[in-house]
């Protein structure tokens, strides 16, 4: 199954929440437009990205190019600002109905005038989906522009919402940059349980599969279980994992790993770190010592500092970004566990508030459940617009 298919299926909780909420908002104060011949389905194509911001297909990583809608599909998609064209209803009356020349009436499509009341309900729905107050207000204000006072169907609102979400997310959708520098050092930070180890395993395996030589340093030396878990991932990926005795200095392990990676001509060195936020001063010192030590070997290292966030923590992810930006020079984000959470909206809030690159998202525990972040796919999946 394509990653888009997985994303769509696994974001069901978030999208069904928005789906149902939008349905309820339109029904509440909506009028049935039974006279309009329009297919009552939410299976419309994903909205086209805003023309000014859509990246050319050639700029996308191959994984995304594969899963994104084809140019033909996109060219058939209605512009988010325009209501979709009415499609002739298919005869549904069954054999007898057709023999008798009768057709089932096409299901009526509810519409509602976009007024202040409806905008307020929309804001509340977006806030409930973890988009945060500021972002929810901005998104609804932009949806209202050019549509205020118009009668909208659920599909039209979803298309407008998806287009707006994609517009917010587009500037932050950046795959992990790869440099010619060897080894490229990637420091991975985040609270315990956010998915650092799993993300390192997935990244290692994907880069290895792409022909890169990868070394992993199990820098959370305080948790034997974390080290063991990383070893399992390393074995799976066929990547060496450097470990140190429990309780030993992670900076010294990072130094050894850097030495090994340089000696072996590795392309990538992934360094896991501890995530104990209980004592921020200790953690800050630990992280800055790792950085100091690896800079003795390469003054530009680490080349990336990835903050791994767990989507199920919702708004808490925002405060984690604030905290870790103080502890380390965070250069990009990875959001894990987007599967099975109703809190996917937090990614929109993160993009809107911090503008940090979102390099990848995780939608499961398997090795291939990590992919570059695609704003249009995400927006379509989150709003429930996506189709196979
Ligand atoms: N459903 C789902 N689970 C995930 C995802 N990423 C990680 N997990 C699970 O989340 C749990 C914690 O992940 P870890 O990778 O151990 O997190 P960590 O940040 O390394 O945690 P510590 O080792 O405690 O520091 C594990 O059970 C993973 O299998 C994801 O994208 N989706």
UniProtKB/TrEMBL annotation:
<dbReference type="InterPro" id="IPR000897">
    <property type="entry name" value="SRP54_GTPase_dom"/>
</dbReference>
<dbReference type="GO" id="GO:0005525">
    <property type="term" value="F:GTP binding"/>
</dbReference>
<dbReference type="InterPro" id="IPR036225">
    <property type="entry name" value="SRP/SRP_N"/>
</dbReference>
<feature type="region of interest" description="Disordered">
    <location>
        <begin position="14"/>
        <end position="95"/>
    </location>
</feature>
<dbReference type="InterPro" id="IPR042101">
    <property type="entry name" value="SRP54_N_sf"/>
</dbReference>
<dbReference type="GO" id="GO:0003924">
    <property type="term" value="F:GTPase activity"/>
</dbReference>
<keyword id="KW-0675">Receptor</keyword>
<dbReference type="InterPro" id="IPR027417">
    <property type="entry name" value="P-loop_NTPase"/>
</dbReference>
<feature type="domain" description="AAA+ ATPase">
    <location>
        <begin position="182"/>
        <end position="329"/>
    </location>
</feature>
<comment type="function">
    <text>Involved in targeting and insertion of nascent membrane proteins into the cytoplasmic membrane. Acts as a receptor for the complex formed by the signal recognition particle (SRP) and the ribosome-nascent chain (RNC). Interaction with SRP-RNC leads to the transfer of the RNC complex to the Sec translocase for insertion into the membrane, the hydrolysis of GTP by both Ffh and FtsY, and the dissociation of the SRP-FtsY complex into the individual components.</text>
</comment>
<protein>
    <recommendedName>
        <fullName>Signal recognition particle receptor FtsY</fullName>
        <ecNumber>3.6.5.4</ecNumber>
    </recommendedName>
</protein>
<keyword id="KW-0378">Hydrolase</keyword>
<feature type="domain" description="SRP54-type proteins GTP-binding">
    <location>
        <begin position="183"/>
        <end position="384"/>
    </location>
</feature>
<dbReference type="GO" id="GO:0005737">
    <property type="term" value="C:cytoplasm"/>
</dbReference>
<keyword id="KW-0342">GTP-binding</keyword>
<dbReference type="Pfam" id="PF00448">
    <property type="entry name" value="SRP54"/>
</dbReference>
<keyword id="KW-0472">Membrane</keyword>
<feature type="domain" description="Signal recognition particle SRP54 helical bundle">
    <location>
        <begin position="95"/>
        <end position="169"/>
    </location>
</feature>
<comment type="similarity">
    <text>Belongs to the GTP-binding SRP family. FtsY subfamily.</text>
</comment>
<comment type="subunit">
    <text>Part of the signal recognition particle protein translocation system, which is composed of SRP and FtsY. SRP is a ribonucleoprotein composed of Ffh and a 4.5S RNA molecule.</text>
</comment>
<dbReference type="GO" id="GO:0005886">
    <property type="term" value="C:plasma membrane"/>
</dbReference>
<dbReference type="InterPro" id="IPR004390">
    <property type="entry name" value="SR_rcpt_FtsY"/>
</dbReference>
<dbReference type="InterPro" id="IPR003593">
    <property type="entry name" value="AAA+_ATPase"/>
</dbReference>
<feature type="binding site">
    <location>
        <begin position="272"/>
        <end position="276"/>
    </location>
    <ligand>
        <name>GTP</name>
    </ligand>
</feature>
<dbReference type="GO" id="GO:0005047">
    <property type="term" value="F:signal recognition particle binding"/>
</dbReference>
<feature type="compositionally biased region" description="Pro residues">
    <location>
        <begin position="44"/>
        <end position="53"/>
    </location>
</feature>
<keyword id="KW-1003">Cell membrane</keyword>
<keyword id="KW-0963">Cytoplasm</keyword>
<feature type="binding site">
    <location>
        <begin position="190"/>
        <end position="197"/>
    </location>
    <ligand>
        <name>GTP</name>
    </ligand>
</feature>
<dbReference type="GO" id="GO:0006614">
    <property type="term" value="P:SRP-dependent cotranslational protein targeting to membrane"/>
</dbReference>
<feature type="binding site">
    <location>
        <begin position="336"/>
        <end position="339"/>
    </location>
    <ligand>
        <name>GTP</name>
    </ligand>
</feature>
<keyword id="KW-0547">Nucleotide-binding</keyword>
<dbReference type="Pfam" id="PF02881">
    <property type="entry name" value="SRP54_N"/>
</dbReference>
<dbReference type="InterPro" id="IPR013822">
    <property type="entry name" value="Signal_recog_particl_SRP54_hlx"/>
</dbReference>
């Amino acid at each position: 199954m394509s990653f888009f298919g997985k994303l769509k299926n696994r974001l069901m909780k978030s999208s069904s929440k928005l789906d149902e909420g939008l349905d309820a908002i339109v029904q509440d104060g909506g009028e049935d437009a039974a006279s309009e011949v329009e297919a009552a389905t939410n299976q419309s194509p994903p909205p086209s990205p805003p023309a000014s911001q859509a990246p050319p297909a050639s700029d996308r990583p191959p994984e995304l190019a594969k899963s994104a809608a084809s140019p033909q599909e996109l060219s058939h998609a209605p512009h988010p600002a325009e209501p979709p064209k009415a499609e002739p209803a298919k005869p549904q009356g069954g054999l007898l109905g057709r023999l008798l020349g009768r057709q089932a009436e096409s299901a009526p499509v509810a519409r509602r005038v976009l007024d202040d009341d409806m905008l307020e309900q929309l804001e509340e729905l977006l806030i409930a989906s973890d988009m945060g107050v500021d972002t929810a207000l901005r998104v609804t204000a932009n949806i209202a522009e050019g549509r205020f006072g118009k009668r909208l169907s659920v599909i039209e609102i979803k298309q407008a919402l998806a287009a707006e979400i994609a517009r917010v997310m587009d500037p932050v959708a950046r795959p992990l940059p790869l440099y010619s520098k060897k080894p490229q050092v990637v420091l991975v930070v985040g609270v315990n349980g956010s998915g650092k180890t799993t993300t390192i395993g997935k990244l290692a395996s994907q880069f290895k599969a792409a022909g890169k030589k990868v070394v992993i340093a199990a820098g959370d030396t305080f948790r034997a279980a974390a080290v063991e878990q990383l070893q399992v991932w390393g074995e799976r990926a066929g990547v060496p994992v450097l470990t140190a005795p429990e309780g030993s200095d992670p900076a010294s392990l990072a130094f050894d790993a850097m030495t090994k990676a340089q000696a072996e001509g590795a392309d990538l060195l992934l360094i896991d770190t501890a995530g104990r936020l209980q004592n921020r001063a200790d953690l800050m010192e630990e992280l800055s010592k790792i950085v100091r030590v690896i800079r003795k070997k390469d003054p530009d290292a680490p080349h990336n500092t990835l903050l791994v966030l767990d989507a199920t923590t919702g708004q808490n992810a925002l405060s984690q970004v604030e905290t870790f930006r103080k502890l380390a020079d965070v250069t990009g984000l990875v959001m894990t566990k987007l599967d099975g959470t109703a809190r996917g909206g937090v990614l929109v809030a993160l993009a809107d508030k911090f503008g940090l690159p979102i390099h990848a998202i995780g939608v499961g525990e398997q090795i291939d459940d990590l992919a570059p972040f695609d704003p249009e796919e995400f927006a379509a999946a989150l709003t429930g617009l996506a189709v196979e």
